[in-house]
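Researcher: We plan to redesign the surface later, but first we want a full-length starting point. Tokens attached.
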């Protein structure tokens, strides 16, 4: 559920207003502070892992002619970047070559593919732009991008009818940033989730 209460205000005569307030930007340094030491350790472990991969016959294939191979393993990794604290999220794919040339047959290599980790926020209908503004202001420099997507919500009654909800997709450069933001958003989302039952969600989407 979305952090709707972030925008809830009590007006005159006890009436509730949902005009967005302007939250102070959460320092990216503060959110990443606890990750700094662990990332330094992770970076050293990453260098060691890459060295072991090369000794085991899995050098990283960065450029050159197109190669074909059988996928035999994969795991998440990080591509170091001096401009990005925590580096960039990626996946290492390990291949056994299936090249036509005899000298290439049986050779092994790995390819690294970068991606943007993300999570979704369910928002109350009509509040999408407000929540998007809250995210961009509150986590400036940490959230890489915010986009609106439509997805089926399996928690809704009669979800097989094909009703879809509007969700906000928060994308990040690495998993560390994702976890830092999720740590802040989750308590707000859980609090709001308890106030909205499934039938209310269904009625809202059906409209």
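Model: Full-length starting sequence:
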């Amino acid at each position: 559920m979305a952090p709707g209460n972030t925008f809830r205000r009590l007006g005159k005569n006890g009436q509730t207003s949902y005009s967005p307030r302007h939250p102070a930007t959460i320092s990216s340094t503060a959110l990443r502070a606890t990750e700094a030491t662990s990332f330094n350790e992770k970076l050293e472990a990453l260098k060691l892992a890459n060295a072991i991969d090369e000794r085991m016959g899995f050098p990283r294939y960065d450029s050159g002619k197109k190669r074909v191979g059988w996928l035999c393993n994969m795991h998440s990794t990080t591509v170091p970047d001096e401009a990005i604290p925590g580096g960039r999220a990626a996946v290492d794919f390990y291949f056994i070559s299936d090249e036509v040339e005899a000298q290439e047959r049986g050779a092994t290599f790995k390819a690294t593919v970068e991606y943007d980790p993300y999570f979704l926020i369910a928002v109350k209908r009509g509040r999408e732009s407000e929540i998007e503004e809250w995210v961009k202001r509150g986590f400036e420099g940490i959230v890489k991008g915010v986009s609106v997507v439509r997805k089926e919500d399996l928690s809704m009654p009669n979800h097989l009818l094909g009703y879809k909800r509007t969700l906000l997709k928060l994308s990040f450069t690495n998993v560390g940033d994702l976890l830092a933001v999720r740590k802040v958003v989750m308590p707000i989302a859980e609090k709001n989730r308890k106030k909205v039952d499934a039938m209310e969600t269904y009625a809202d989407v059906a409209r």
